[in-house]
Amino acid sequence: MLQRCEGCGAFTYPAREACPSCLSAALIFVDAPPRGLLLAETTAHVPSDVYFRERAPWRIGLVKMNCGPTIVAHLHGDCVEGAPVRMSFQLDKSGQAVAFARPEGETPNMADDRQWRELTADPRFRRVLVTNGRSAIGREVALALKVAGAKMVFVGVAEPWRPFAGENLLQGQDGIELVSLDAADEKSTRNLAADIGGKVDILVNTTDYVRPGGLLDRRGTSIARDEVDQAYLGFINLAQAFGPIMRMRGADGINNSVAWVNILSVYALANWPAFGAYSASQAACLSLSHCLRAELRPGGLKMMNVFTGPVDTEWFQTVPPPKVAPRAIAQAVVSGLKGGLEEMYVGDVAEEIRQRLASNPKALEREFDR
Amino acid sequence: MQGEVLQGKALLELAGAIASDAVRVVDLSFTLSPDFPVIVLPPEFGQAAPVRIQEISRYDARGPAWYWNNVTFGEHTGTHFDAPIHWFTGKDLANNAVDTMPPKDMIAPACVIDCSAQAAQDPDFLLTVPIVEAWEARHGRIPSRQWVLLRTDWSKKGWRDYSSLRDDGAHTPGPDAAVMKWLVEERGIIGFGTETIGTDAGQAGHFEPPYPAHHFLHGAGRYGLQCLCNLDQLPATGAVIIASPLKIQNGSGSPLRVIALVSST
Predict the structure, then answer these.
(1) Domain hosting residue A109, numbered range
(2) Of A118, A137, A9, A139, which Cα lies nearest the Cα of A74?
(3) In chain B, which among 65-94 make CB contacts under 8 A with chain A?
(4) Could you give the ipTM of this predicted complex?
(5) Which of A54, A226, A357, B238 is deepest in the core (most CB within 10 A)?
(6) Which residues in chain B have Cβ-Cβ distances shorter than 8 Å to A226?
(7) Tens of pLDDT along B26-63?
(8) Which domain holds residue B165?
(9) Does A226 touch chain B (CB under 8 A)?
């Protein structure tokens, strides 16, 4: 995304108050054509910044965008001076968007580039904990991460004495290990962190506790308590058990600890009364996730929230389509990690709510109450 | 007066016998922990809250010299007691909750019926009247106001086999409907205890009436004990059970420490 002048159509970078070619103040951010040409490149051997000094040598270059501006960018190892490149903004370890240039076409093992990996959270070669393998989402996420090249996927199973659907899909799979984890239980979470906390490079919180109902059609607080127990307190237990050690390992070599992922309902953003109490529990988790993001930042870890609409599982069986397939969520998790993103919206419902919330939140609320 | 004097002496003799191990104290309870299986109802029903133990402090900044926890659990978790108010059949009885039940009902002898061999063969094994009659032929008629404890050695299993859940529910041993009615009405038992999760068999929802142990016991103001262990350390007759549930206001049951007094001779 770059600024473009509404008056003359020129793109400009870095961000300005007025267009440098026509002085119009009407500059808006739009998706810019990502192609450019690598004009010059250099390698910093002794950078002044302590972060880069630790990671030197570091290649940077000057890219002339086809749409106009010239941008200083981090370079993929396969970028060649004078050759066309693909540009993107990536979130660096401090959460700032920085320009990154990749070769225009695909090159062998392109995603394994050292500088690219530093700006993303690719699960390839990494060890991942998926917190709840009992749910279809957890199962699909575990399998998708394996396909994406994760070295090991630990899959948490609460109440291991209870059989569950799809257990055989995970059991005995090479590179997938079922571990005992009840995130809502303090001791269980702490014990697992004692065992594998130092090996978790990516944690995907797939806590899944959906119950219909709002306030007036429910009796008492038992279900709400379960919702809070599972989603909110479970999140706290996981964060307290795994967060500190993950943050500590943020610079632990090339396969360092890189990311925390939450799968949240998009109704965390706007209450859906049919699932009103559930929405509220998700909103609490969303708020907490922003706290976690800030607290993980000093270690350079990314915190990604994946928002979904109703999922195609039994607890949403009364909800008409469109619904999101658990597999689509799993694919979003993988692609978000590969891109080093902080937010993903999966499916039409989630995307629509995001857009409508941005344009008219009161209208959205009004529509939900019908 | 004479009786009271003798009773006082007998109590001191009992205390001495416990101290000298002439009377053994057998712990029939599992440790109350988050790891222990709880009853699983179909998900559309309300569920028993699992056992949660949250540290308040552990000799640390939250409390430098002391360790303590906040504990939460459902009334029917761990080794637990069922009061008559637990079931609809006992809902209108007097003193039917754990806080109002007569304290003297908390101490009573037990008859232990060993069906461990049959249960090892068949997880859906059912206790029947003929089986109990055969037991009586060897050990004598079950006296009234005694516990009947069904020994299955189920408590020795790993948690997965212990809960024994399949797609159609739990498959664990228990009493059939006829024997429960008979034990309550013909033998006047004070209660019925099992090693499994629930006084009823895993598939008892399909019996007539459903959940006959709950139905007949609680309908007649009697009690249930479940998730017991160490029943193999009890004699067929003569053990005395002490089962005093927490005094929860209008409580339908509670986790508890169940102990048995067993004569060593």
Answers:
(1) 38-118
(2) A118
(3) none
(4) 0.83
(5) A226
(6) 47, 49
(7) 999 999 999 999 998 888 888 999 999 999 999 999 99
(8) 16-32+75-263
(9) yes
Q: How far is B167 from chain A (nearest CA, A)?
A: 9
Number of independent structural domains in chain A: 3
Q: A353: left (phi > 0), else alpha (psi -120 to 50), else beta?
A: alpha
Lowest mean pLDDT among B45-49, B126-130, B214-218: B45-49
| N-terminal to C-terminal alpha carbon distance within chain B | 30
Put simply, the answer to whether A185 touches B52 (Cβ < 8 Å) is yes
**Chain B positions in Cβ-Cβ contact with residue A222 (cut-off 8 Å):** 46, 49
Residues A315 and A176 in one domain: yes
B54 part of contact set with chain A, CB < 8 Å: yes
Is the same domain home to A135 and A111?
Answer: no
- Report the C-alpha gap between A44 and A232 in whole angstroms: 45
Instruction: Report the domain count for chain B.
Output: 1
Token pair for A336: 């978000």
CA distance A161 to chain B (A): 4
- DSSP designation for A65: E
Q: Based on the domain organization, do A28 and A85 belong to the same domain?
A: no
**Per-residue pLDDT averaged across B150-161, rounded?**
96
Amino acid at A270: A
pLDDT tens, residue by residue, A155-206: 999 999 999 988 888 998 899 999 999 999 999 999 999 999 999 999 999 9
Q: Is B101 exposed, middle or buried (0-12, 13-18, 19+ CB in 10 A)?
A: buried
Q: What is the pLDDT of residue A273?
A: 95
Residue A339 CA to chain centroid, in angstroms?
9
User: Which of A161, A186, A222 is the closest to B54 by Cβ?
Assistant: A186
Q: What is the pLDDT of residue B122?
A: 97
pLDDT of residue B6: 63
Among B47, B49, B163, beta carbon nearest to A162: B163
Q: How near does any CA of chain A get to the CA of B62, in Å?
A: 16
Q: Is A12 helix (H, G, I), strand (E, B) or coil?
A: strand
Q: State the amino acid at position A166 in one-letter form.
A: G
Point out the residues of B that are catalytic: 86
Are A358 and A235 contained in the same domain? Answer: yes
